[in-house]
Amino acid sequence: MKLAYWMYAGPAHIGTLRVASSFKNVHAIMHAPLGDDYFNVMRSMLERERNFTPVTASIVDRNVLARGSQEKVVDNITRKDKEETPDLIVLTPTCTSSILQEDLHNFVERAKIEAKADVILADVNHYRVNELQAADRTLHQIVQYYIEKARKRGELPQSKTEKPSVNIIGISTLGFHNQHDCTELKRLMADLGIEVNAVIPEGASVHELKNLPRAWFNLVPYRELGLMAANYLEQEFGTPYINITPMGVVETARCIRKIQQVINEQGANVDYEDFINEQTLHVSQAAWFSRSIDCQNLTGKKAVVFGDNTHAAAITKILAREMGIHVVWAGTYCKYDADWFREQVSEYCDEVIITDDHGAIGDAIARVEPSAIFGTQMERHVGKRLNIPCGVIAAPIHVQNFPIGYKPFLGYEGTNQITDLIYNSFTLGMEDHLLEIFGGHDTKEVITKGISAESDLNWTKDGLAELNKIPGFVRGKVKRNTEKFARERGIKDITTEVLYAAKEAVGA
Amino acid sequence: MTVAQPEALNFECETGNYHTFCPISCVAWLYQKIEDSFFLVIGTKTCGYFLQNAMGVMIFAEPRYAMAELEEGDISAQLNDYDELKRLCLQIKRDRNPSVIVWIGTCTTEIIKMDLEGLAPKLESEIGIPIVVARANGLDYAFTQGEDTVLAAMAARCPDKAPVVEADKNERNAIQKLLNFGKKKEEVAQEETEYVNHPPLVLFGSLPDPVVTQLTLELKKQGIKVSGWLPAKRFTELPVIEEGYYVAGVNPFLSRTATTLMRRRKCKLIGAPFPIGADGTRAWIEKICSVFGITPKGLEEREAQIWQSLEEYIKLIRGKSVFFMGDNLLEVSLARFLVRCGMIVQEIGIPYMDKRYQAAELALLEKTCQEMGAPIPKIIEKPDNYNQIQRIYELQPDLVITGMAHANPLEARGINTKWSVEFTFAQIHGFTNARDILELVTRPLRRNNNLKDLGWEKLVKEEAKI
């Protein structure tokens, strides 16, 4: 047992559901007790999704414990098959259902007989993998299933596309800025003259999966999701993949050069150097920013970075290599892939921290007192407590990290966005600091004094105690309205009862 | 007038495929209510992930709750449950020093049959902190029922004897006396005379402190003294419950607690409608008064006055229809209040319906429908969300009260929704807070009035169904 109340990566089934519900017309059925369908709430709230999340639960309750859930699961699969006519139903175990040790494989086989849809069982161990690993596996599993199905039917396409083309692998629902990144990557590919053969899983139909081998290469922008599928496609079809995250000016250039090499090896004849040069010097503002006086002022300032592998590594490199900021430590919660992270960032920071214990991270922040933090929502709150500004760069995230405006982290527009994020974090910190030195321009105190000096009213002890129970952010309003109410009625002493009478009368 | 047989309430039961919060969510409000408690949820990552996301910003405020996250070794019994729990509880004792640790059993502890009730007394005597066990799991319960399981367990911990009489108390409780120095004895005696002589009454149900004060004052106006409240602000202040005490519930989801108080503590349950809405509050007080043989004073005027102050909200909803998908067991009381406001309730979905505990509330619903000339709604227990959505498409209600999983998709289809969970966390009890209920209910309709000329109701493309 482990004492914990915060986790950076969710349980395995969340990963499976993220992949399944990213596809078009794929339905996931969770084998889970009541209340475990919290995924739907997250998707509906965070992504502000207009459509119903294609995830339902086959509820595990007492009856199931007594009789087994075979009938129920099979019924639920066939029912969903009729109601929604999905292409694929993914039966998703949860940590509760996995200890029941029922033969879910068998249920899937049974359901397949009746259902028109394909049915598969997500193959993840809830006690060994987390959300990110499970997402990677599920994507691999679905890709493999449809490649093999097409192969059996002889429907696999035999040739590559005529022009250089790419599959973008790993864009998914509830991923950090994934939608914007996807748009930016498509734009980048168009600029490079590369056709996008497929984007998976987001918005893809499972019927498209058989066409994956037609691409010249696969691009896996995120370290956490898509590598297993890309590896599989390389083994099966020899399709090379590129897993350089185009985040930051230098890494974007490196990714594009790699693309150039990969497609030239297959007979294309492209030279992207001029493009890279033009974008770097004149389109993206990030390189110019590095030269500007603003950035000069940041030189040697201390920062810490924490997040998933992809974002923490890329941001660390940007801070150190492109802006001259002193990264005291960089860390990741992807413990299962820690070696990769170490290798990526060791030369750009003093210390590498690998942990999924938010307490340890909080302590490490307090210890070094950086000028800015780049982390998850948890680090943002640590920053609040310590009065250090924080830019959010990775999941876990809240609804404000699903902006409506166009905010990619990848590609050349991404470099602009990241520059703003970093610069704004630091200047806010500076501004706070200056205000403190010069005594601030806060007038709150004076206003309260002005009002209370004029007050001819007396708050009784119980009235005041009751007032203090009211949440701070509305207390002032309630106080004003109650006093107004009391004054209008000539009440001198404000008691608890007067407070609530005022609430009833004016909705104070 | 025709003497038509009044239509009776109609109960149905569906498949139970519906969305609700896991009952462990009760720790979110209970740890805040019981200030010296610590809630330890013994479960998996899934439970932790739910709490982390459902509680939003609360998580960052160093809450007095934590997960005892089960690992593979715990599941396969390679690790000893008792030793593991002891290690964690000692850590909690060291860091937080709570007056009680509440263990929340989850689906996983049920399935692996971890004997929490058996382990607790042993560990309790070893570490010297009371350990209360509540099985608030998703196998058996929905959302607010979590509180019910915790309070039922707490009921067993209430002291069963009032502190010994004044005389010898004086000697022992010197400190208490010292603390009481401001309060003269006559003052206390005088206060007592404000109350009618009636047997002790203990109320049960966790409410925010301001609401506790409001309801207590409301009963005081009738000369009724509230001897205690389950739960109190602190675990160490749990009320005395002796055999023969009267108890009354303030929330509709507390049936286990009520049963426990009746059977184990030999209390008399006052079965009343719940004090939600002006009508419910009046009926609640009237019922308590009638049990104690008190004629209520000024209640009718008080209710009328509240209704009058609500008129501007009621104007917005009168004649409009509402559909409860059902997820928190407040549905019957809210539906009854909204019928009284002039709304037409099309369906009351509810996770679980205890017809005995809710009897008075159901009777009031029926009566209200007849008096308002409103159709009597169907009550659907264990609803099926998919079927409900088909019915919503058909009925096109003016308002759907539903969970967050369905709210945005319904809005995108031009159907107004109100997020049901807000009713659990907002202050909705008593005369004072009737306005807050309507503030919530009318919000989507007021939003519509603001946006009505824009032609932006349906924001999804019609899909051609094959």
From TrEMBL, chain A:
This protein's pathway reads: Porphyrin-containing compound metabolism; bacteriochlorophyll biosynthesis; Porphyrin-containing compound metabolism; chlorophyll biosynthesis (light-independent)
List the catalysed reactions: chlorophyllide a + oxidized 2[4Fe-4S]-[ferredoxin] + 2 ADP + 2 phosphate = protochlorophyllide a + reduced 2[4Fe-4S]-[ferredoxin] + 2 ATP + 2 H2O
Positions with a binding annotation for substrate: G429, M430
Swiss-Prot/TrEMBL keywords: 4Fe-4S, ATP-binding, Chlorophyll biosynthesis, Iron, Iron-sulfur, Metal-binding, Nucleotide-binding, Oxidoreductase, Photosynthesis
Note how many cofactor molecules are bound and how: Binds 1 [4Fe-4S] cluster per heterodimer. The cluster is bound at the heterodimer interface by residues from both subunits.
The cofactors it requires, by name, are: [4Fe-4S] cluster
Q: Output the PANTHER family linked to this UniProt entry.
A: LIGHT-INDEPENDENT PROTOCHLOROPHYLLIDE REDUCTASE SUBUNIT B
Q: What is this protein called?
A: Light-independent protochlorophyllide reductase subunit B
Biological source species: Chlorogloeopsis fritschii PCC 6912
TrEMBL record, chain B:
Q: Which Pfam families match?
A: Oxidored_nitro
Quote one Gene Ontology molecular function term. Answer: 4 iron, 4 sulfur cluster binding
Q: Metal-binding: is it a keyword of this entry?
A: yes
| Keyword Transferase belongs to the record | no
Q: Which positions does UniProt annotate for [4Fe-4S] cluster binding?
A: C22, C47, C107
Task: Name its co-factor(s).
Answer: [4Fe-4S] cluster
Which reaction does this chain catalyze? chlorophyllide a + oxidized 2[4Fe-4S]-[ferredoxin] + 2 ADP + 2 phosphate = protochlorophyllide a + reduced 2[4Fe-4S]-[ferredoxin] + 2 ATP + 2 H2O
Q: In which pathway does it act?
A: Porphyrin-containing compound metabolism; chlorophyll biosynthesis (light-independent)
| UniProt xrefs under InterPro entries | LIPOR_BchN/ChlN (IPR050293), Nase/OxRdtase_comp1 (IPR000510), Protochl_reductN (IPR005970)
Keyword line: 4Fe-4S, ATP-binding, Chlorophyll biosynthesis, Iron, Iron-sulfur, Metal-binding, Nucleotide-binding, Oxidoreductase, Photosynthesis
Q: Where is the Nitrogenase/oxidoreductase component domain?
A: 22-443
Note accompanying the cofactor annotation: Binds 1 [4Fe-4S] cluster per heterodimer. The cluster is bound at the heterodimer interface by residues from both subunits.
The record's Gene Ontology biological-process terms are:
light-independent chlorophyll biosynthetic process; photosynthesis, dark reaction
E.C. no? 1.3.7.7
Transmembrane stretches in the record are none
Question: What family does the database annotate?
Answer: Belongs to the BchN/ChlN family.
Q: How does it assemble?
A: Protochlorophyllide reductase is composed of three subunits; ChlL, ChlN and ChlB. Forms a heterotetramer of two ChlB and two ChlN subunits.
Instruction: Give the function comment from the record.
Output: Component of the dark-operative protochlorophyllide reductase (DPOR) that uses Mg-ATP and reduced ferredoxin to reduce ring D of protochlorophyllide (Pchlide) to form chlorophyllide a (Chlide). This reaction is light-independent. The NB-protein (ChlN-ChlB) is the catalytic component of the complex.
Full protein name: Light-independent protochlorophyllide reductase subunit N
Q: Where does this protein come from, organism-wise?
A: Chlorogloeopsis fritschii PCC 6912
